[in-house]
């Protein structure tokens, strides 16, 4: 398969976009970002920036012409626009399209009460409390036994994996790739945090069955934050089975898993 050299990134100013762009540049790709016309986002000097009407297929076709690959890193409501992005890429004869599916395996997700998932991004999760850990106040919530394995991925690592996948087009074409910085449990994270801060965390035990009830109540009231309870249950419930256990692509991509301890140290530093 011919090498892919020119890559366009949609949603490049969001949470995941910047590390993907940086990884592509580091790997030697020629990068173009495609943003909304009104966007004020800035990008590295060696990135071509195209500001277009993202609701216009014609504008999108023109924007992606000549590109070998298009990567979507959009999130939230913009995910619904991906069909338009794909249609434009097909018309422009783009060789590879990577959709914004950087999260839980939506083909096999145990819950169906929610639509789109945010991936368990480990560093952000530790800083923002999603994993049940409040580093600033030295507290944590342990869901069920705390021994359910889950796979966490640093944003920068996702960027490296995307770049590596495009660098090996033949080996990765039309495949669902499962990647993770590491597979861990809440109790393992707790142990490392306590070792790094030199004191114990105050623990609150939470039943994920209670989270489901809270989520149902919120959903009945059209409260979108029900997503938090449903996602926590889906990832951390005993027997959830969301960890990356097969077809892990890290080895195929020529990468190595990352260090939980280094990630914890970075998260602690970010809260100080």
UniProtKB/TrEMBL annotation:
Keywords: NADP, Oxidoreductase. The keyword Transit peptide does not apply. Pfam families: NmrA. Residues 6-109 form the NmrA-like domain. This is Pinoresinol reductase 1. One of its GO terms (molecular function) is oxidoreductase activity.
């Amino acid at each position: 398969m011919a090498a892919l050299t020119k890559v366009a990134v949609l949603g490049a100013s969001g949470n995941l976009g910047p590390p993907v762009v940086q990884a592509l540049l580091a790997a030697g790709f020629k990068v173009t970002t495609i943003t909304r016309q009104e966007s004020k986002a800035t990008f590295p000097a060696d990135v071509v920036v195209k500001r277009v009407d993202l609701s216009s297929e014609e504008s999108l076709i023109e924007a992606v012409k000549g590109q070998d690959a298009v990567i979507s890193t959009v999130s939230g409501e913009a995910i619904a626009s991906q069909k338009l992005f794909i249609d434009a890429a097909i018309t422009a004869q783009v060789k590879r399209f990577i959709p914004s599916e950087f999260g839980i395996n939506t083909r096999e997700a145990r819950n169906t009460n929610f639509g789109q998932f945010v991936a368990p991004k480990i560093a952000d999760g530790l800083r923002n409390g999603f994993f049940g850990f409040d580093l600033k106040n030295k507290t944590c919530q342990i869901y069920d036994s705390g021994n359910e394995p889950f796979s966490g991925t640093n944003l920068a690592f996702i960027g490296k994996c995307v770049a590596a996948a495009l660098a090996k087009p033949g080996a990765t074409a039309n495949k669902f790739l499962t990647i993770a910085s590491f597979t861990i449990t809440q109790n393992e994270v707790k142990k490392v945090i306590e070792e790094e801060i030199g004191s114990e965390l105050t623990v609150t035990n939470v039943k994920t069955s209670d989270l489901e009830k809270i989520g149902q109540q919120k959903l009945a009231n059209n409260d979108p934050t029900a997503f938090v309870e449903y996602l926590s249950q889906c990832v951390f419930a005993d027997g959830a089975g969301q960890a990356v256990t097969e077809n892990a692509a890290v080895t195929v991509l020529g990468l190595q898993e990352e260090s939980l301890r280094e990630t914890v140290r970075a998260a602690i530093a970010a809260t100080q």
